[in-house]
């Protein structure tokens, strides 16, 4: 599915947080949002996945007008892995992941064999099979993050929004999560902080500064020393990482 968010404007109180941003994610593309803390990435994503009402703008997933469609219908197509996943009540990991099936069920419909099979597959993809019966609240931050991804995979979305999905994760799991998402072969819009990961996994990038698009293009076009220095107010040198053959970055103040 293709996502088009057009001319998005978001104000919180009197402050303009997002200023006329347009984003295009073509079919099966992995598109990244980068930019410094507080530049507006999460706010923009929240307005795209209906957690926040934008002041202006439209969001279409193919021909589905997201902002004018019911939550349930949107959830059948759009999955979200957010930044904070705190919950007050406890469920097992399997029950948590089963919640991903909710948008596909009628009210009070019980879990079918097919739902259990989908949950099992999501647990396998995220390496969580051994955690199936553990209590969600007893998990570490990184383990919880993987459960949330598994729940989103069980939702079988056609498009995924990720807000710093590798928060809390050690390097191995950062790679595993992004690999896992990439393997789904669906459109993805993800806010990422790690520029090497963004260079490696993204087909296209939008660099956000002060609530507006500062630069956009392929990772090679966007991740230049000049753009990174302007975005983050640091010194930066780019190089070809001899191990990964991808873009590498050396930073200083
Ligand atoms: N509910 C709110 N009330 C007031 N200001 C808010 C609110 N939500 C967000 N903001 C402000 O909007 C700006 C953008 O925040 P946002 O979380 O979108 O940034 P971000 O780019 O995702 O940052 P980070 O990389 O730190 O997650 C920040 O200055 C933040 O303080």
Automatic annotation (TrEMBL):
Which InterPro entries did the record assign?
AAA+_ATPase, ABC_transporter-like_ATP-bd, ABC_transporter-like_CS, P-loop_NTPase
What Gene Ontology terms describe what this protein does at the molecular function level?
Answer: ATP binding; ATP hydrolysis activity
Q: Which stretches make up the ABC transporter domain?
A: 3-235
What PROSITE patterns is this protein classified in?
ABC_TRANSPORTER_1, ABC_TRANSPORTER_2
Q: Which Gene3D superfamilies match?
A: P-loop containing nucleotide triphosphate hydrolases
The answer to whether the entry has keyword ATP-binding is: yes
- Which keywords does this chain's UniProt record carry? ATP-binding, Nucleotide-binding, Transport
Q: What's the name of the protein?
A: ABC transporter
């Amino acid at each position: 599915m293709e996502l088009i968010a057009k001319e998005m404007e978001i104000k919180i109180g009197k402050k303009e947080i997002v200023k006329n941003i347009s984003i295009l994610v073509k079919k099966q593309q992995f598109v990244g949002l980068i930019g410094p803390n507080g530049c507006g990435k999460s706010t923009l994503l929240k307005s795209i996945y209906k957690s926040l009402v934008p002041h202006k703008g439209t969001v279409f997933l193919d021909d589905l007008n997201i902002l004018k469609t019911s939550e349930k219908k949107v959830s059948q197509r759009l999955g979200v892995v957010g930044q904070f996943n705190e919950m007050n009540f406890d469920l097992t990991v399997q029950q948590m992941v089963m919640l991903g099936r909710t948008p596909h069920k009628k009210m009070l419909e019980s879990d079918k064999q097919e739902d259990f099979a989908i949950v099992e597959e999501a647990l396998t993809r995220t390496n969580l099979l051994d955690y199936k019966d553990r209590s969600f609240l007893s998990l570490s931050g990184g383990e919880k993050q993987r459960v949330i991804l598994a729940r989103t995979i069980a939702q079988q979305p056609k498009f995924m929004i990720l807000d710093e999905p590798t928060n809390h994760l050690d390097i191995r799991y950062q790679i595993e999560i992004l690999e896992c998402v990439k393997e789904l072969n669906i459109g993805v819009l993800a806010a990422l902080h790690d520029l090497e990961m963004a260079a490696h996994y993204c087909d296209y990038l939008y660099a956000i500064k002060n609530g507006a698009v500062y630069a956009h293009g392929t990772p090679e076009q966007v991740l230049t020393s000049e753009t990174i220095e302007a975005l983050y107010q640091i010194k930066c040198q780019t190089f070809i990482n001899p191990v990964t053959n991808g873009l590498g970055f050396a930073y200083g103040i």
